[in-house]
């Protein structure tokens, strides 16, 4: 036998239930985003590497060790996108979406790539659906972004804790960074190897480290909330006030940073205890558009990890019951069954036309194997009579009905 080729480490097939849950998550989120009047943007998977190094930050895990980068045949340094925000911002600037002077609400969906150590809920190709609002400082927008995340979780019936924080701005963050750095230097010996390195390059990142020892040290670090300037304090206060007004339950985590450098002011994460991982995350990035060459444009957004949410979906919406149409006889019966199946489908009924040949008993076995609820046999007698036996495979009840009666019976199930 020829050599079998397998999937690449960290890359996966989604089959059966898993694919159904994946699609359920995506469809649910899209519907919610459309109700909030977000417009879809479809983005390329490959971008110049420097788009990500400049936005996500040189001293982040994603850029330092997780990016799939390569030189294309034209000698360009490109990368498979590790996240969606940078591409949205690039598109916003490149297409001058700011030119009409009103803020934009966009959403995207697709594959992201990060060279991480694969585990449950962590893959090298995974999928996000995310939304961005570009061109507003209004804390109403921060509130709605968090509210959308809550709505996604509630609709999917996934329990998760919503943690929020403010990362301050260019005015107040430097003093906080300094305080954290001083604190961490005093605990240098206890930090993991990665964090010892981060100490010089990006000390705030240490607060996001997943090593237990580092987490413990981070839990005693200074709190950003003690360092926020008046503007950031007021903004954060408004977000909390509006969230309370909507009845959104959240916890404040004054040491919540994020894995990407571009955030400012509001950040948040929805954490699933069952998975022990973040499932949705986002925040403000008021400087990013300008840093990528656009006009100063305050902005914010979130991204939901589709696989992680799908892992937590317990129940799928009911599918339409399947009907197996069984041709029984010669060419005439086959053609009649072919047409009958079409008529049922036109009426919104889910129909499989049996391609199996042979005994009727085998046909019923097949119907059970594919999970059909009903069968309709189309044979010589049926053609003569204009009536077909509709059999319910659960109750074993069988009735001879006209095509119209079959449609009437099945359409409203
Ligand atoms: P983590 O801290 O778990 O590594 P992150 O902070 O790197 O997550 P973000 O960059 O904020 O994650 O991405 C947003 C969401 O995308 C995450 O909350 C998660 O649901 C999902 N996600 C991120 N990385 C992966 C991955 N490697 N595999 C599957 N889902 C992922
Ligand atoms: Mg990560």
From TrEMBL:
<dbReference type="GO" id="GO:0006427">
    <property type="term" value="P:histidyl-tRNA aminoacylation"/>
</dbReference>
<dbReference type="InterPro" id="IPR036621">
    <property type="entry name" value="Anticodon-bd_dom_sf"/>
</dbReference>
<keyword id="KW-0547">Nucleotide-binding</keyword>
<dbReference type="InterPro" id="IPR004516">
    <property type="entry name" value="HisRS/HisZ"/>
</dbReference>
<dbReference type="InterPro" id="IPR015807">
    <property type="entry name" value="His-tRNA-ligase"/>
</dbReference>
<keyword id="KW-0648">Protein biosynthesis</keyword>
<feature type="binding site">
    <location>
        <position position="114"/>
    </location>
    <ligand>
        <name>L-histidine</name>
    </ligand>
</feature>
<feature type="binding site">
    <location>
        <position position="258"/>
    </location>
    <ligand>
        <name>L-histidine</name>
    </ligand>
</feature>
<dbReference type="GO" id="GO:0005524">
    <property type="term" value="F:ATP binding"/>
</dbReference>
<dbReference type="InterPro" id="IPR004154">
    <property type="entry name" value="Anticodon-bd"/>
</dbReference>
<dbReference type="InterPro" id="IPR033656">
    <property type="entry name" value="HisRS_anticodon"/>
</dbReference>
<keyword id="KW-0436">Ligase</keyword>
<dbReference type="GO" id="GO:0005737">
    <property type="term" value="C:cytoplasm"/>
</dbReference>
<feature type="binding site">
    <location>
        <begin position="262"/>
        <end position="263"/>
    </location>
    <ligand>
        <name>L-histidine</name>
    </ligand>
</feature>
<dbReference type="InterPro" id="IPR006195">
    <property type="entry name" value="aa-tRNA-synth_II"/>
</dbReference>
<dbReference type="Pfam" id="PF03129">
    <property type="entry name" value="HGTP_anticodon"/>
</dbReference>
<keyword id="KW-0963">Cytoplasm</keyword>
<feature type="binding site">
    <location>
        <position position="132"/>
    </location>
    <ligand>
        <name>L-histidine</name>
    </ligand>
</feature>
<protein>
    <recommendedName>
        <fullName>Histidine--tRNA ligase</fullName>
        <ecNumber>6.1.1.21</ecNumber>
    </recommendedName>
</protein>
<dbReference type="InterPro" id="IPR045864">
    <property type="entry name" value="aa-tRNA-synth_II/BPL/LPL"/>
</dbReference>
<dbReference type="Pfam" id="PF13393">
    <property type="entry name" value="tRNA-synt_His"/>
</dbReference>
<comment type="similarity">
    <text>Belongs to the class-II aminoacyl-tRNA synthetase family.</text>
</comment>
<dbReference type="InterPro" id="IPR041715">
    <property type="entry name" value="HisRS-like_core"/>
</dbReference>
<feature type="domain" description="Aminoacyl-transfer RNA synthetases class-II family profile">
    <location>
        <begin position="1"/>
        <end position="327"/>
    </location>
</feature>
<feature type="binding site">
    <location>
        <position position="128"/>
    </location>
    <ligand>
        <name>L-histidine</name>
    </ligand>
</feature>
<dbReference type="GO" id="GO:0004821">
    <property type="term" value="F:histidine-tRNA ligase activity"/>
</dbReference>
<feature type="binding site">
    <location>
        <begin position="83"/>
        <end position="85"/>
    </location>
    <ligand>
        <name>L-histidine</name>
    </ligand>
</feature>
<comment type="subunit">
    <text>Homodimer.</text>
</comment>
<keyword id="KW-0067">ATP-binding</keyword>
<keyword id="KW-0030">Aminoacyl-tRNA synthetase</keyword>
């Amino acid at each position: 036998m020829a050599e079998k080729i397998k999937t690449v480490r960290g890359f996966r097939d989604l089959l059966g239930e898993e694919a159904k849950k994946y699609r359920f998550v995506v469809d649910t989120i899209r519907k919610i985003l459309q109700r909030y009047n977000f417009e879809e943007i479809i983005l390329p998977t490959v971008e110049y590497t420097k788009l990500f190094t400049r936005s996500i930050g040189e001293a982040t895990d994603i850029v330092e060790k997780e990016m799939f980068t390569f030189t294309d045949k034209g000698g360009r340094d490109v990368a498979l996108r590790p996240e969606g925000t940078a591409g949205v911002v690039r598109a916003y600037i490149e297409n001058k979406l700011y030119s009409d002077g009103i803020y934009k609400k966009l959403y995207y969906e697709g594959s992201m790539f990060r060279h991480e150590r694969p585990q449950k809920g962590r893959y090298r190709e995974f999928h996000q659906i995310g939304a961005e609002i570009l061109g507003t400082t209004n804390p109403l927008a921060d509130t709605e972004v968090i509210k959308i995340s809550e709505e996604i979780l509630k609709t999917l019936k996934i329990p998760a804790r919503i943690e929020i924080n403010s990362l301050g701005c260019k005015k107040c963050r430097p003093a906080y960074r300094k305080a954290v750095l001083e604190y961490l230097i005093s605990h240098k010996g206890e930090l993991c190897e990665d964090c010892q390195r981060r100490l010089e390059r990006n000390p705030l990142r240490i607060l996001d480290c997943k090593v237990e020892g580092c987490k413990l040290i981070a839990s005693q670090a200074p709190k950003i909330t003690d360092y926020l300037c008046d503007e950031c304090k007021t903004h954060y206060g408004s977000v909390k006030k509006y969230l309370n007004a909507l009845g959104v339950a959240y916890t404040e985590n004054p040491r919540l940073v994020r894995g990407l450098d571009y955030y400012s002011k509001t950040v948040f994460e929805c954490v699933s205890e069952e998975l022990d991982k973040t499932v949705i995350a986002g925040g403000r990035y008021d400087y990013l558009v300008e840093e990528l060459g656009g006009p100063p444009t305050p902005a914010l957004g979130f991204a939901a990890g589709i696989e992680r949410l799908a892992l937590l979906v317990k129940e799928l919406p009911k599918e339409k019951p399947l009907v197996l149409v069984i041709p029984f006889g010669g060419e005439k019966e086959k053609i009649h069954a072919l047409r009958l199946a079409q008529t049922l489908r036109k009426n919104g009924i889910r129909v499989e036309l049996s391609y199996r040949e042979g005994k009727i008993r085998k046909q019923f076995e097949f119907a059970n194997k594919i999970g059909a609820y009903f069968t309709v046999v189309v044979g010589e007698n049926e053609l003569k009579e204009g009536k077909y036996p509709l059999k319910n495979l659960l109750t074993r009840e069988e009735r001879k009905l006209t095509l119209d009666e079959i449609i009437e019976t099945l359409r409203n199930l």
